[in-house]
Design brief:
This protein has about 450 residues and is α/β, with parallel strands linked by helices. The chain has two domains: about 250 residues, Aldehyde Dehydrogenase, Chain A, domain 1 (3-Layer(aba) Sandwich); about 180 residues, 3-Layer(aba) Sandwich (Aldehyde Dehydrogenase, Chain A, domain 2), CATH 3.40.309. It is built from 15 helices and 22 strands. The protein is globular and about 65 Å long. The N and C termini lie far apart (about 60 Å). The structure holds NADP nicotinamide-adenine-dinucleotide phosphate. The site of NADP nicotinamide-adenine-dinucleotide phosphate has 30 residues, from helix 8.
Length: about 450
């Protein structure tokens, strides 16, 4: 049995029978057979179904959001927003997939030559618990619209959400086998990647998991996309609009109780505005309401599991030993971790070097642009960076200096169906969303007619 428990009170939420080897084999058989007919369907048929999935998400958003909140402790209002965003990505690909994948003519000496974008078959998605719906839908919507088949290995603590996602596609009318949730532990992933019927794998999660999945995919010469951790910097220059920037930075770090790959985990402040900024920032963080994740007024819920809260506590205490100061918070109570601000953080300290997956921000002060860029790039991660300044010319000039997969000016780093999303360095490779996401799992076929 795979059991999910409410991290707020420890109560069991769901208990799902784990698939045996035989169950997995049957599911892959269903998926493989389905591919033969699904790949022949037209974009308009797929679009109709994808729009129905969006409608189903909107209609029953409360029900789906409640399961998310119960399984991983995200505040209910944020869970509802997550479900709504999934409807958006379904609509986006329903409307744009055909355009993204239409043939591209290339002028050569041939009578006709072009690239066509064709589905490859079953893609395995290994997904994390932090956005139990969004991570899956941003893979599933383009995959299905491209004519591929999805099989999901969801994180063990949000398995009911995985089941719900399969139900959504079924309720929308997708033929059986287009999308299946496989209730399995991570020890079954290797065999699935090696299975001949499975053509590619995408993983969103931690570096160890990504590394392990990519090694197996590499041995089998199968395509992989990795969306891994991040330690985004929020860089505030002295000419930034302080009031607006504070509000954006609070949201960037503390939404989803800090459990987001693209959260702004390292706050870099230019020396002349650091004190003023920190005062206002601390005031707003102090006002964030913690409480029962099911309460609509709650902004800070609990962490998804107690071991994760313990890991965070260890990172903070190590950093304090290394010389960081607790400016605010720093106390854990079971799965709850107080919104925390650490000051005096240097790039040698644990909270700067590692990803902190909870409501903890590290503050480092810099003197000039050169130092700011050096601090941002000194991280092993490369998911995204936010830069705050009123000088937009300077902002655009500084963009190419960052190693990251995304630079957002005067905004928090966020995923948007219209924009490519993905990292560099140990944050992974490949892109999701936009035209780039849907083209990851297709055969870019060259056709040459003499
Ligand atoms: P995780 O422990 O790596 O788990 C992610 C998924 O991988 C789960 O389904 C897990 O299954 C599975 N898994 C774990 N070890 C595996 C292995 N050796 N082989 C195959 N599968 C394995 O990560 P998490 O704790 O759920 O999520 C947090 C991490 O995800 C953070 O680092 C966060 O930054 C990252 N993340 C990245 C993005 C992005 O877009 N870049 C988005 C969200 C989250 P079990 O649950 O059964 O162990």
């Amino acid at each position: 049995m795979i059991v999910s428990r409410n991290p707020y009170n420890g109560e069991e939420v769901a208990s799902i029978k784990e698939f045996t080897k035989k169950d997995i084999d049957e599911a892959l058989d269903v998926a493989d057979k389905r591919f033969q007919s699904w790949k022949q369907t037209s974009f308009s048929e797929r679009s109709k179904l994808m729009m129905a999935a969006a409608a189903e998400l909107k209609k029953n958003k409360q029900e789906y959001a409640e399961t998310i909140t119960l399984e991983m402790g995200k505040p209910i209002t944020q869970a509802i927003a997550e479900v709504e965003k999934c409807a958006w990505v379904c609509e986006y690909y329903a409307e744009n997939a055909e355009r993204h994948l239409s043939k591209e003519t290339i002028k050569t000496d041939a009578r006709k030559s072009y690239t066509s974008f064709e589905p490859i078959g079953i893609v395995l998605a290994v997904m994390p618990w932090n956005y139990p719906f969004w991570q899956v839908f941003r893979f599933a919507a383009p995959a299905l619209m491209a004519g591929n088949i999805g099989v999901l290995k969801h994180a063990s603590n949000v398995m009911q959400s995985g089941e719900n996602i399969q139900k959504i596609f079924e309720r929308a009318g997708f033929p059986k086998g287009c999308f299946q949730n496989l209730p399995i532990g991570s020890n079954k992933v290797e065999d699935i990647i090696r299975d001949k019927r499975v053509k590619a794998v995408t993983l969103t999660g931690s570096k160890p998991a990504g590394s392990s999945v990519a090694s197996v995919a590499g041995e089998e010469i199968k395509k992989s996309v990795l969306e891994l951790g991040g330690s985004n910097a929020l860089v505030v220059f002295k000419d930034a609009d302080i009031k607006k920037t504070v509000a954006t930075c609070v949201q960037a770090r503390y939404q989803n109780t800090g459990q987001s790959c693209i959260a702004g985990k390292r706050l870099l402040l230019q020396d002349s505005i650091a004190e003023e900024f920190l005062e206002l920032f601390s005031k707003q963080v102090r006002e964030l309401k913690s409480g029962d994740p099911m309460d609509e007024k709650t902004y800070i819920g609990v962490l998804a599991r107690e071991d994760l809260a313990e890991d965070l506590e260890k990172q903070v205490s190590e950093s304090v030993k290394q010389g960081a100061k607790i400016h605010l918070g720093g106390v854990r109570n079971g799965t709850y971790y107080e919104p925390t601000i650490l000051t005096g953080v240097t790039k040698e300290m644990t909270v700067f070097k590692e990803e902190t997956f909870g409501p903890v921000i590290s503050v480092t002060i810099f003197k000039d642009e050169k130092k700011a860029v050096e601090l941002v790039n000194s991280s092993d991660f490369g998911l995204g960076v936010s830069v705050f300044t009123e000088d937009l010319e300077f902002a655009e000039k500084i963009c190419p200096q960052f190693d990251d997969g995304a630079v957002f000016i005067n905004e928090l780093v966020k995923s948007d169906p219209r924009l490519p999303f993905g990292g560099t360095k140990i944050s992974g490779y490949g892109r999701e969303l936009s035209i780039h996401g849907i083209r990851e799992f297709v055969n870019k076929k060259t056709v040459y007619i003499k």
